[in-house]
Amino acid sequence: MFASSIQATQDNPYGRSKLAAENILKQEHEKTGRTIYLFRFPNLFGKWGRPNYNSVVATFCYRAARDLPLEIYDPTRTVQLAYIDDVLDALVHLLDANVKTHAVFEEDVAVHPPIELGRIADLLQVFKESRRSLTVPQLDDAFTKQLY
């Protein structure tokens, strides 16, 4: 089981390294017949997120909670996100399935539609205001519920 990244399709050092690791595992399958699971994760959010490291959502949450400005250079830039609990559910399901075949599986996890950075920032401000006003924000969709 290998946690790769959607960046594996990008022509940059990180993307090339992820793709190279995937290819090594595929070659291992060719030589040995071992079952290989490749997961290409998008940007993850949820518990255990590290602000100012690898998660724009964790960084935004950290800054919003401390009344720090959210620095967004392009609020229309979109990101593809997956909630960490959905990722863990997919991994556990795979382990529980006890698959015995000898193949390379490229697995997907539930991802949310691309969302603009500005929209994430707006939602966090709504959440923050709801704490002050003692109201519950509208949680109409899965992403908003998981972000909350």
UniProtKB/TrEMBL annotation:
Q: Which segments of the protein form a coiled coil according to its record?
A: none
Classify the source by domain of life: Eukaryota
Q: Name one Pfam family in it.
A: Epimerase
**NAD-dependent epimerase/dehydratase domain: residues covered:** 10-98
Record InterPro entries? Epimerase_deHydtase (IPR001509), Lipid_A_modif_metabolic_enz (IPR050177), NAD(P)-bd_dom_sf (IPR036291)
Indicate what this protein is called per its UniProt record: Epimerase domain-containing protein
Q: Which organism is it from?
A: Puccinia triticina (isolate 1-1 / race 1 (BBBD))
